[in-house]
Amino acid sequence: MMRLIKIFILSLYLIHFAACSPAKGYLGPELQEDKLATVYYKNCGNNLILIRASAEGVEFTRSGIHLLPGKRAVDVTIEKPSAPYNCVPHTEFNEIGFQLCLERRQEAINNNEKYIPNCYNSDYTTSYDLCHQQFQQFICAVNVDLLANTKYEVCPYEDYTKIKLKLMDNNLALGLKDCEGLDSEVRNVRFD
């Protein structure tokens, strides 16, 4: 049994480690990090939501991607939500949780326990707003010469009415492109 627990813990560690390390964005054997360029995603616009980031056809997360040096294309798909509207307040009551609390309370009373739990309706009530919200999708792409042993950040941001993408090396913008607007869709969004 202890061996299974150790194997389980080791597999969780390996999954966590793999999820936190940059993706491999090139073909061939593994190379040392000093022979590669690393690109990370950074959200420079507080109101932008990452949908997808990729380089050389390989998707990556905030953990980044290792690429061979040279001219590379990095593209990002993001969404910009508008302000919510047509909000309708909702209230939900957790009847099952409340009943379990009442049963536990009665059990404590019957057993003359020192601690008798209180069951307040407010503890089992959740209030939220359900709103319409429009999401505009944008695709951004930048081509830039990447150097070995260098870390870059690809960063979408809003510049007045335009969404732009910049690729930075030590906060110095190397590539800057306007993003192209795609579809727009309205969704129902819950706001707690």
Question: Can you walk through the features of this model?
Answer:
With 192 residues, this protein is α+β, with helices and mostly antiparallel strands. It has one domain. It is 18% helix and 52% strand. The protein contains two helices and twelve strands; from the N terminus they run αβββββββαβββββ. It has helices at residues 2-20, 95-110, and strands spanning 23-24, 37-41, 49-55, 58-60, 65-67, 70-81, 85-93, 125-146, 150-159, 162-169, 172-178, 180-191. The strands form two sheets. Strands 1-5-2-9-10-11 form a six-stranded mixed β-sheet, with no helix packed on it. The protein is elongated, with a radius of gyration of 25 Å. The two termini are 43 Å apart.
Structural class, by secondary structure, is alpha+beta
Looking at how many chains there are and whether they match, the oligomeric state comes to: single chain
Major beta sheet summary: 6 strands, mixed
Shape estimate: elongated
